[in-house]
Amino acid sequence: MKNILITGGAGFIGSNIALKLLQREKNVTVLDNLSPQIHGNNPEVTSPLYKSILNKVNFIKGTVTSKEDWINAIKDQDAIIHLAAETGTGQSMYEIQKYVDVNIGGTALMLDILANHSHQIKKIIIASSRAIYGEGKYKCAKHGIIYPSERKDTAMAKGDFSCKCPICDDTVIILPTTEDSKIHPTSVYGITKQNQEQLVLTVCKSLGIAAVGYRYQNVYGPGQSLSNPYTGILSIFSTRIKNGNLINIFEDGKETRDFVYIDDVAEATILGLENDEANNQVYNVGTGVATNVITVAETLSKFYNIEVPIQISGNYRLGDIRHNFADISKIKSEIGFDPKWNFENGIQQFTKWVNEQEIPKDKYELSIKEMKNKGLYK
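-> structure tokens emitted (378 positions)
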């Protein structure tokens, strides 16, 4: 496959994949709407992501909600890496129509075109998310493997942020989440990613197109947006630290995520594109290591050599999960993915890059005010 279309290819993950595909002498086309929330109002000046691919790929400014843009972009392509999506978990809870239209509607439009128009697409990579698992996989001392329901507002208001067994209500222990774990997203964003994955895997099978679903964990690294206050805890904390502002850590700070470095994510994605063993499979893409939020804040402060107050506030967002880290044994054994970057080394590279950037105005408080007004932040 020589000609590859990347939707959202000017974004953080997409631009990195594009550059790696160019190194493999692929012809890359990018379809992207250059959202101001990610790229600023003047992308050619303000967006290092867009500038990194400018004049290197066939760039189409357009949207996945436009049939005309899709038809134009798909022409002469061999494969599609479908990354374009609205991504903020908290934001998704009050911009429901937008998330459904872009994430589900855009994917449905792509598949409708492939079902009803001539094309040469042989494979589709669909970007799914850890968010489809909701709280992921846990173990109860009495009832074994269980999948907790969304945490109760009443319990979190009292400072109890732990996940409970849905049978006996005892506190449970987190386990690595496998691909066969229960799918039960707790946010609109997670629901849309689940639908995207299901649509692609189901329809592509009927069309004779190979499909691969990637359930990305928390992707980070040089190039991620520092100006978007809705996504990316590393960017949010970095902007706070560099502006000398207090870091407000939600809950008790012991909530964990699986942080996977952007180079590893790009390599994993391309492995799925190049290997037939990945066809019609879904994979977790992570490190298999859980890192808590206090560690994130302290590690960033260390590498920036800037001390700011770190407040463990007990605040929380409705729809947030407590823990999730990936079991990556399937992707290791089937297509040979093995992450090369640990959290410490990845953060060192990320903070080095941030130190070279112009630090944007901190919009965090505005995002919190917006969520408070919607009743989603406590």
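The chain has a mean pLDDT of 93.
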